[in-house]
Predict the 3D structure of the following.
Amino acid sequence: MPYLNSAPFFRGLALGDRFSLTDLVPREQGAQAASGAIAAGLLPVVDFFRLEETFERVGRFGIAVRGRARSVLLFSRTPIRQLDGAKIAVTEESSTSAILLRLVLESRYKLSPAEYTRGQQADADALLLIGDAALRFQQANVQYPYETDLAFEWWLWQHVPFVFAVWAIRKDASPQDKKHLELSLSRSLGVNVSRLDAIAEESSKALGLPAASLSAYLSGFAYRFSEQEEAGIRRFKELLHESHLL
């Protein structure tokens, strides 16, 4: 997952010769997992729900947030409550966040956008961006005067953390590979959560943001889940079923 908020897992991740890494944005990762092209990954939680017959969780690892994510942002020409009948552009990279957007608009605010379209559209009334692209766009945005953090909307609405992705591996992988991946992730994360400042410093120039801001951004995520994050996963799945989005 080639985003800054995934770096605590991947920076220095030692997988040995049995695994090789490939960069895939969330939507692509879900598609590759469904096709059988990848053995494991930090799967968007929506895709994990759809693939539970063939994939299983790796420990309680993933990406979640309690409150603002700061990189799952809806930029709009009007306040979010005024997007009824709007044209919403959704980044090609998104899987889970695109569904979260629909829940927030349609279930929380009872709105009916006229259209959801993939990719940036000049005539769109609103634009959903995620990950590093959202961080960059936020700095340069002069087109959309309103900004909504979808994870914060979820927090205010459901009062549980929002989980964007979970680590998962194919069920038919060998027990040795499953254990090796879990231990490797645990070691990598154990080292990197104490080095968020260094990770932020490394990324500051590329993202055009102060290292202190990026360090604060990274520290807002949960990478090892407690029961609260697990409750967030269950609640999201329930709402998807209720809304016929899964």
